[in-house]
Amino acid sequence: MPNTQYLFINYLKPILSMIVEVVVYNIESAFKAQEGGADRIELCDNPGDGGTTPSGGTVEVVRANTTLDIFVMLRPRGGDFFYTSYEFHTMKRDLIQFQKISVDGFVFGVLNENGTIDKKRCKELIDKAKPLKVTCHRAFDMTRDPFEALEDCIEAGFSRILTSGHQLKAIEGVDLIARLVEKAGNRIVIVAGSGVNEKTVKEIVSKTNVKEIHFSATSSRPSKMIFQNQLISAMGEQGKGEYTVRTVDPERVRVIREIAERTSL
Known about the structure:
This protein is an alpha/beta fold. It is built from 9 helices and 10 strands. The protein has one domain: Alpha-Beta Barrel (TIM Barrel), CATH 3.20.20. The strands form 2 sheets. The protein has an 8-stranded parallel beta barrel, surrounded by 5 helices. The chain has a two-stranded antiparallel sheet with strand order 9-10. The N terminus is likely disordered.
């Protein structure tokens, strides 16, 4: 006779488990995120601007060499989220091209000048993305009213909202995130992100009841270049050295996930 308690626990396991999304900015980081047990990656470029649209080549290589879900950032530039017609057209063109590579979803946010969600443009992108899922990224945190923005995101058709609770870091916005989770109910998923790490994830999960978390688990490694020109420390505007490579620490992914799952049970 089958162990009914065992079957019951395993039946509930997919419902109780925490969904872990790791934001990555290069191919190596995507591989490391998968190694660490991530469920999904948010694939971006340009960490200095908080993430912009990655190249088609990068998306194609990551798709061909990983099995996890890939959500691609659609953001034509850094800065605000109020876009010109040319920038919005670029987002639509990128979306169409990435669909051909069989990605699993998209991440974007478009705002009006007055700090509200641009429901018209967001819905246009969401309709083009169907049946793929779409997350409203932290443009949500730049809106004038989080509860107004919540309802607008639901009306536009977003599947998820990534938020730090209108604060710089999610640990500082736990009270608002908890209220958003309660208000959202089963209508949309609230994902906690920004500053989620080994030290903060327990408090964030316990105080908000989120079932999905977003973090970077950032690490770095020295360049494998043998020759290094010490006269040029950096070519980019951010002043970062050319001989250090940003990546993801798989062990950090595992640890953060373990703490989050233990807390959510």
